[in-house]
Write a structure and sequence with these properties.
single chain; 284 residues; alpha/beta; Rossmann fold; seven-stranded mixed sheet; 22% strand; globular; ATP hydrolysis activity; ATP binding; Multidrug ABC transporter ATP-binding protein; nucleotide-binding
């Protein structure tokens, strides 16, 4: 007789998260889960709180209230140091060093030495298709190649979770497509990706979406579920309809989120990371 299958916790569980900076409320009562091995897109306009939310997930942003758990540990735990990779909006590499010099420097900072360090460098150069540019100074590279160097640095520790803040911003459509091909390859190999963007058509590359506006989460669902729920043909139109519905509820004086499907209590190990959530109960 076989026992029950072990419970697989989400890669990220966020429940009731509030973040205030000074007197400004940046993130308001946000709850969601990120399933393992998926690409999850955090989509919303600039200034809506995406970066603050991602900083909370990687453990460098103090939380005013709520709970963030990453790979079964509190966000920012020392044990997560090499298990979580983080690509910031600002370049995280030295432009006057070559690609290889940057990678050797950052791998040493992770405590890698000798053959282990060289193996890690060779592995990530291959992963992000940078072999042709390995001996060139980063300052000589194009925007897309520059982004791939930052991505390579984040991959040095073979992270189980990769958090990326607007990694394709400012890049032309062809380069963006090439980067998303790399992201999909990583996910197919088992890495979980949490990627923020203000470009709504990037939803097509994601397994699941988190739609955010003014510090609040409007939806946590698959792309097709978002379109079915709103009756829209594009994620951009669906997002606008969800914003309108949310504003209508607030104008009516009902500021408590009403879920069409109840949001899971993500501190519960039985929580289903695939369960859809919408902040508005009314069909748009």
């Amino acid at each position: 007789m076989t026992g029950p299958e072990p419970v697989v916790l989400p890669a990220v569980s966020v429940f009731g998260l509030h973040v205030c900076i000074g007197e400004n409320v940046i993130v308001q009562n946000v709850s969601f889960a990120v399933p393992r091995g998926a690409i999850v897109g955090l989509l919303g306009p600039s200034g809506c709180g995406k970066t603050t939310l991602l900083r909370s997930v990687v453990g460098i942003q103090p939380c005013t209230a709520g709970h963030v758990q990453v790979l079964g540990f509190p966000a920012g735990s020392r044990v997560l140091r090499t298990r979580v990779g983080y690509v910031t909006q600002a370049p995280s590499v030295y432009p006057d060093l070559t690609v290889l010099e940057n990678l050797r420097y950052f791998s040493a900072a992770l405590g890698m030495r000798g053959w282990r360090r060289e193996d890690a460098v060779v592995r990530v150069v291959k992963l992000v298709d940078l072999a042709e540019y390995a001996d060139k100074p980063v300052a000589w590279l194009s925007g897309g190649q520059y982004s791939r160097v930052s991505l390579a640095v984040a991959l040095l520790g073979s992270p189980e979770l990769l958090v990326m803040d607007e990694p394709t911003v400012g890049l032309d459509p062809l380069v963006r497509r090439e980067l998303w091909t790399v992201f999909r390859r990583l996910a197919d190999d088992g890495t979980t990706l949490l990627v923020s963007s203000h470009v709504m058509d990037e939803a097509d590359h994601c397994d699941r979406l988190l739609l955010m506006r003014s510090g609040r989460l409007l939806a946590s669902a698959g792309r097709d579920e978002v379109l079915e729920y709103t009756g829209c043909e594009t994620v951009e139109n669906a997002f606008l309809d969800l914003v309108t519905a949310s504003a209508a509820l607030q104008a009516a004086g009902d500021r408590a989120p009403v879920a069409r499907v109840p949001a899971p209590l993500l501190t519960d190990e039985s929580a289903d990371a695939d369960r859809p959530y919408f902040s508005s109960g009314a069909r748009c």
